[in-house]
Every structure is written in structure tokens, then in C-alpha cells.
Design goal:
34% helix, alpha/beta, four-stranded antiparallel sheet, 15 strands
Length: 318
């Protein structure tokens, strides 16, 4: 079924509330920030420099922007142990929403596969953070052989029941019996503290001419720039690294990868119009998702790579 604007926003509110509810036990009620025993400081995850500008606090976390490369990231960030504990006990609302069968997700998945198939022959595909396996279902329909990794036990079980080869372990602990033509991360890479470590690891898991696909929220998006701390992209805990066009390219270069294709999806024009009308950006009454009157329309926004999420195809440099 196609969701109305209100239904889509209600879904987002359900997902947002579930995520924020999971934060509460980690927050110091005296200052509204995460308790220091769960945190560690870090340098920029792209250029490794330590100088930054503080942007804003959001739901317990603090966002900063690197002075050197403009990367936006959470600092201080949860320790690995605290993050593992958080994700182990996290909700499965995202999987439940995708399970409802809205074609919104199907369209995004097929668009990503279209981009992947321009640069990779069909074969083995590994989806990291595969949730309940809906994307893998679509890939299998397009004749890919499907593997997945999912740490949430409930979602892992759901993906297994769909008949995919799924692992419930950290990627670095898995010994795969094959290499892959494509490795995908749908709204996962922004959760990974050390993106370079994982890109280098995944690069070694590819067949020759294999590709890595990322869908990630974009700090360059018009919605993020206008709404800033009111934008749901900034959740304070899970979205630890928010790349833009230049910073994802810098990270790829650092790892010996090149961008084969880059596009943006999801305009968030309706959300922006709500905000510009002095309403709740996610629950306002504006139905116009086509254009920001007198400024920009959806096609122009995506041509300028200012959509809400980036879809990036990476291949190894030769």
C-alpha cells in the first residue's frame, strides 16, 4: 500500500520514540547528557584531526564538526562495550515498519540494486545489518545469491526464516566460505564508529570488480542544514558519523576505494515546508512534497546531491 503523508510521519514518530526510549537509562538527568562512564573522546573519523566546532546537543549526545574536513560526528561517543549492550537490547520497530510492505522501501532497494548492477555482475550479495531480510528478498528476486549479517536477535531470526544465509555475529568474527560481488549497508554505515576499518575489511571480501554499496544520511542534505538539531538525522547515539559528499569521498580515497556512482534519495521537501511554515517538521499539515515554492524542486535538489540520503557505490582503485 502507498502511505499518506500523515501515515508516513506517524511511522517515523513511532520509530523515533522507540529509539529515544532506549536512550533513557544512559542519560544523566542532571544535565541531559549521556553518563560519562559510557563514553570516550575521539578524533575525526575521516581525517583523524582533533580540532572541532561544537554544533549542538541532541537526546543525550553532542554533535561536532571537524575544522579540517567538515565531517559531522558525535563526540564523545559510546564505547564499544556500551554500544554492543545498547544494540543487543535495542527495539525492532524498523523491521516491523518495513514488514508492513510499503513500496517506499521497495523503491529505494531497487534503485540501489540498479546502481550496483551497473558496475557488478550478479552473484553473491552480502547485506550487513540486514534486519528482517526484506532487501535480501528483493535481491533474490533479481537472481542474486543472498547472505546477511544481523546483530539484533529478533530480526536475525526473521531473516533466517526467509531462507537467507544469515549470521548473528560481528562482521570481523565471521569466516565466510565465499567472496562477494556486492556488499551492501542500508542505513548502517552511519552507526559504525571506525568506517575506515570496516571499508578496508569489506574490500578484502570482494571478488575482483566487486562493489560496496552504502545508503547513508547526508549531512549535506538541505533538510539537515535547515532543520539542524530538529532533524531526525541527529539522534545523539546511533548516528555517530554523518558523512557528506566530500567526506565520504575522502574516506573512500583513504581506503583505496573510488566512488563509481553517487546519488541522493528522499527529498524531505514536505518536512522542510512544514518547518518553514512554523509547524512541527514531521507532523505538520503541509502536503507539498514536490517543491519549496520559489526555491527548488525535488529533481533540482537531487541533481545538486542535496537529498536526505546518499546512495554510494564504491569500487577498488586500480
Amino acid at each position: 500500500m502507498n502511505l499518506t503523508v500523515k501515515e508516513l510521519h506517524d511511522q517515523r514518530k513511532k520509530l523515533w520514540n522507540a529509539s529515544i526510549a532506549s536512550h533513557e537509562k544512559y542519560i544523566n538527568p542532571e544535565n541531559g547528557l549521556f553518563q560519562t562512564q559510557f563514553l570516550e573522546n575521539r578524533n575525526c573519523p575521516v581525517c583523524s584531526q582533533g580540532e572541532y566546532i561544537a554544533l549542538f546537543a541532541k537526546e543525550g549526545g553532542q554533535y561536532v564538526k571537524c575544522v579540517s574536513c567538515s565531517m559531522v560526528y558525535v563526540n564523545p561517543v559510546f564505547t564499544d562495550q556500551a554500544l554492543n549492550d545498547y544494540y543487543d537490547k535495542n527495539h525492532s520497530v524498523q523491521a516491523e515498519l518495513v514488514e508492513d510492505g510499503d513500496p517506499f522501501y521497495e523503491k529505494l532497494y531497487n534503485k540501489g540494486l540498479d546502481s550496483i548492477e551497473k558496475y557488478s555482475s550478479k552473484g553473491n550479495i552480502l547485506d550487513i545489518g540486514c534486519s528482517s531480510g526484506i532487501f535480501l528478498d528483493i535481491a533474490r528476486e533479481r537472481t542474486w545469491k543472498t547472505w546477511g549479517v544481523e546483530l539484533n536477535v529478533q530480526e536475525y531470526s526473521m531473516a533466517c526464516k526467509r531462507g537467507h544465509h544469515v549470521y548473528n555475529q560481528l562482521l570481523e568474527k565471521i569466516k565466510f566460505e565465499t567472496r562477494f560481488n556486492a556488499i551492501t549497508l542500508w542505513d548502517v554505515f552511519e552507526h559504525i564508529k571506525d568506517g575506515a576499518f570496516y571499508l578496508n575489511m569489506m574490500k578484502k571480501m570482494l571478488f575482483e570488480k566487486g562493489v560496496i554499496f552504502l545508503q547513508i544520511p547526508s549531512s549535506d542534505s538541505l533538510a539537515a542544514r535547515i532543520l539542524q538539531e530538529k532533524c531526525n538525522m541527529f539522534d545523539g547515539l546511533e548516528h555517530v558519523n554523518l558523512y557528506g559528499v566530500n567526506t565520504i569521498k575522502q574516506l573512500a580515497d583513504k581506503c583505496g576505494l573510488k566512488i563509481l556512482d553517487i546519488q541522493t534519495v528522499i527529498s524531505e521537501i514536505g518536512v522542510i515546508n512544514n518547518y518553514l511554515n512554523y509547524e512541527d517538521p514531521y507532523l505538520g499539515s503541509i502536503d507539498n512534497k514536490i517543491n519549496i515554492p520559489g526555491l527548488i524542486d525535488e529533481a533540482q535538489l537531487n541533481e545538486r546531491l542535496m537529498g536526505y540520503k546518499l546512495q554510494v557505490v564504491l569500487g577498488e582503485m586500480k
